[in-house]
Amino acid sequence: DSAAAAIAVAIDASKLVLMTDTDGVLEDKDRPETRISSLNLRAARAMIGDGRADRGMIPKLEAAIHALEHGVDRVHLINGGTLNALLIEVFTDEGIGTMMEL
User: Fold this and answer.
1) Its pTM surpasses 0.85
2) What pLDDT digit, counting tens, does each position of 55-98 carry?
3) Across-strand partners of 100?
4) Residue 56: which domain range?
5) Domain count, the chain
6) What DSSP state is assigned to residue 16?
7) N or C: which end of the chain has fewer CB atoms below 10 A?
8) Count of alpha carbons within 13 Å of 91, Cβ hemisphere only?
9) Are 26 and 97 in contact, with CB atoms under 8 Å apart?
10) Residue 19's domain is classified under what CATH number?
11) What DSSP character marks residue 46?
C-alpha cells in the first residue's frame, strides 16, 4: 500500500486504487453494511486514532492519507475479490468501496 502511494505521488497520478478484502472502509469491521462510501482526511485520521480502523485497514488509510497529502486527488479502497469492482466504483454514483478526498 505504501509503495503504491509512493508511485502514485511520483508519477503525479490523479487517482489511486487500493485493493482490500473488505468492501472499503467500514465503520464497524464486523458489519459489512457499515461501509463508508466517502471519507476525508480528518475522518480517516480519527478512525486510526480512536481504534475504529482495524489492523489491516490502518496501513491502507495511512497510504491513502500520504497520497492525498502529496497531490493525488482521490483514493479508492475497493474489494479486489468483487467482480467488476473497479468499474462499479468509478462509474456509478454510489460506488462499491470507499472514496477518499481532501
Assistant:
1) yes
2) 899 999 999 999 999 999 999 999 999 999 999 999 999 899 99
3) 39, 75
4) 2-101
5) 1
6) E
7) C
8) 5
9) no
10) 3.40.1160.10
11) H
15 is written with which cell numbers? 487517482
| CA angle, 84 then 36 then 29, to 5° | 95
pLDDT at 57: 94
- Residue 16: what pLDDT? 98
Contacts for 55 with CB less than 8 Å, ≥ 6 apart = none
pLDDT single digits (tens) 5-44: 999 999 999 999 999 999 999 998 889 899 999 999 999 9
Residue 54 has pLDDT above 90, yes or no: no
Q: Which of 47, 93, 98 is nearest to 76 (CA)?
A: 98
Amino acid at residue number 39:
L
Helix, strand, or coil (residue 10): helix
Please, what sign has the CA dihedral across residues 100, 85, 32, 61?
Answer: negative
- 38: cell is 466517502
